[in-house]
Amino acid sequence: MKFFIDTANLKDIAEAQALGILDGVTTNPSLMAKEGITGKNNILKHYVDICNLVDGDVSAEVNALDFEGMIKEGEELADLHEQIVVKLPMTKEGIKACKYFSDREIKTNVTLIFSAGQALLAAKAGATYCSPFLGRLDDISTDGLNLIEEIRQIYDNYGFETQILAASVRHTMHVVNCAKIGADVMTGPLSSITGLLKHPLTDIGIAQFVADYEKGNK
Ligand code: E4P
């Protein structure tokens, strides 16, 4: 499973990259705003800064809601850097734009997916990634993991190459469960990645090894 980090924070991205296990980054307009990145030129520059920090795909979301606007914005984003993936909303216009970009071999990520039918459409339009939002479904007492299982089954039935990018991951068990059901990629905050490192028995074991070594090597 690929690990993406879901943030526009350069420090967090650099920390995940330094671990050596990072495969890419996802951003969205809310995450950019959270870092205080506003204004077209600053936003475009920030995407390039992110691409220069990591080796893999970097999803950059269009803000336009109409087809022409999405194409204009998406082409501008794709021209920024070879690692850019054009992130498009799951709407009629977004699906049309996804087909436009996939026909031109520009990578796409269809975002805000909350049903298996939407994921099927994204795959039909040739999306590189489809992003079901796990955490936001869990937030409203709906089983987000079940949606990912359904999408996995549909994509496997027909050999769709669109990768299931489990998004809105909030914690380590989301990551582990996504791996168990075969999501291709997960994207979450730094804590959902670094949290995987932790186990109290590891800490106790290390303390014991250190103490025993020191006893024997005084
Ligand atoms: C996906 O690409 C989105 O940026 C993201 O995962 C949304 O997560 P949230 O529901 O925690 O805002």
From TrEMBL:
Subcellular location: Cytoplasm
Pfam family, one: TAL_FSA
N-terminal signal peptide: none
Keywords for this protein: Cytoplasm, Pentose shunt, Schiff base, Transferase
Coiled-coil ranges (or none): none
Active-site residues, as the UniProt record annotates them: 87
Keyword Phosphoprotein: no
EC number: 2.2.1.2
TM stretches of this protein: none
InterPro entries xref list: Aldolase_TIM, TAL/FSA, Transaldolase_3B, Transaldolase_3B/F6P_aldolase, Transaldolase_AS, TSA/FSA_arc/bac
Gene3D superfamilies: Aldolase class I
Catalyzed chemical reaction(s): D-sedoheptulose 7-phosphate + D-glyceraldehyde 3-phosphate = D-erythrose 4-phosphate + beta-D-fructose 6-phosphate
Biochemical pathway: Carbohydrate degradation; pentose phosphate pathway; D-glyceraldehyde 3-phosphate and beta-D-fructose 6-phosphate from D-ribose 5-phosphate and D-xylulose 5-phosphate (non-oxidative stage): step 2/3
Role this protein plays: Transaldolase is important for the balance of metabolites in the pentose-phosphate pathway.
PANTHER family noted in UniProt: FRUCTOSE-6-PHOSPHATE ALDOLASE 1-RELATED, TRANSALDOLASE
Protein family (similarity comment): Belongs to the transaldolase family. Type 3B subfamily.
UniProt-recorded name of the protein: Probable transaldolase
Annotated organism of origin: Flavobacterium difficile
